[in-house]
Amino acid sequence: MSAAARPLSPLPPVERVRPGLWSVPVPIPSSSLRYVFVYVFETDAGPYLLDTGWNTDDAFAALCDGLTQVGTSIAEVQGVLVTHIHPDHYGLAGRVREVSGAWVALHPADARLITDRYEEPTELLGRVGAMLRRMGAPDAELASLQNASMPLRALVDVTRPDVLIEDGERPDVPGWDLSAIWTPGHSPGHLCFWEPSNRLMLAGDHVLPRITPNIPFHPQAGSDPLGDFLGSLRKLEGYGSEEVLPAHEHRFVGLDGRIAELVAHHEQRFLEVLGAIRSGVSSAWDIAGLMHWSRPWERIEGFMKRAAVAEAMAHLRALEVRGVVHEVRGTPSRWEIVES
Ligand SMILES: [Zn+2]
Ligand SMILES: [Zn+2]
Questions:
Q1: Is 89 helix (H, G, I), strand (E, B) or coil?
Q2: What is the DSSP string of 212-223?
Q3: Is the whole model's pTM more than 0.85, yes or no?
Q4: pLDDT tens sequence across 114-163
Q5: Burial of 293 (0-12, 13-18, 19+ CB in 10 A)
Q6: How far apart are alpha carbons 173 and 47 in whole angstroms?
Q7: Cα distance between residue 86 and residue 215, in whole Å
Q8: Beta-strand (E) ranges in the chain?
């Protein structure tokens, strides 16, 4: 069914999750995720937000309307915690601050990516091009893949954080005892938040109930993003959370079980990568072409294709760190299985 013919399913409602804590869905229409949940913490001083939505007039209007339904207003917002700098989470933060005077908080590892990613991307684009050649992207597709994320810049009102939040720190949200858990992987500075009195895990994009977050290899991602992600999953084990509040899809119970599924998923992906190399291909591009995707490889295009190859590359790097494969650097690099 084409996107135009598909009936538009309604967004979930604004919901009271717990006393004083609300979820407000903010639409992200051209994305299959459809919406991001902004969580609203009520305090005597005014509301505090976790994430914001991306920077379009429709999303901003939905956020303002959601806050009105909660019984407050955008102008009352005191602080904005941002889980990570992807446009659907951080894009509106600057605009919220402009109309409310709220502080904006990020982990430093994401804060330091803002200039190169959203303001002066020329040098980063050069590094993305080099990465794509290393991965084996064909010349005909190189330019379009290199620029594939540029349209996303329009969805971000670039702003500097007022507050930097490190692992284990407690953001200043009066009456709430939130603590930050640094969970790099999906983004180098991704933050989850633990809320102990209701035993809630606010998981951002790190753990979602049905889909697996994209873990891209990227010039801004550090040398082993998938290794980081798997370590960050283990970091969330054993909290005994009553419910998980993710940024997309829906709330769920059973965090440890979901973590085990995600770990098993990536172990399966490792086997796919090794199977592809054994079948005779050696570049990240060709390896990705033999992996299993939600649609046929030939039909994956643009940003999605770059994300797919970057994901194959992230698995290759994690396998290299484990001593299972070896990269023979070149254009493209050749990946070989280490014979023990
Ligand atoms: Zn994200
Ligand atoms: Zn997201």
A1: helix
A2: PPP----TTS-S
A3: yes
A4: 999 999 999 999 999 999 999 999 999 998 899 888 888 889 999 999 99
A5: middle
A6: 9
A7: 13
A8: 15-18, 21-28, 34-41, 48-50, 79-81, 103-106, 163-164, 179-182, 191-195, 200-204, 243-246, 325-328, 334-337
List Cβ neighbours of 58 (8 Å cut-off, separation of 6 or more). Answer: 27, 29
CA of residue 278 to ligand 1 center, whole Å = 33
Residue 52 phi, psi (nearest 5): -135, -25
CB 99 within 8 A of CB 75: yes
Helix axes 122-135, 302-321, angle to 10 degrees: 70
The Cα 221–Cα 325 span in angstroms is: 20
The number of angstroms, rounded, from the C-alpha of 333 to the middle of its chain's C-alpha atoms is 27
Who surrounds ion ligand 2 at CB < 5 A? 88, 205
Q: Which ligand is nearest to the CA of 84?
A: 1
Task: Read off the DSSP letter of residue 134.
Answer: H
* Side chain identity, residue 231: G
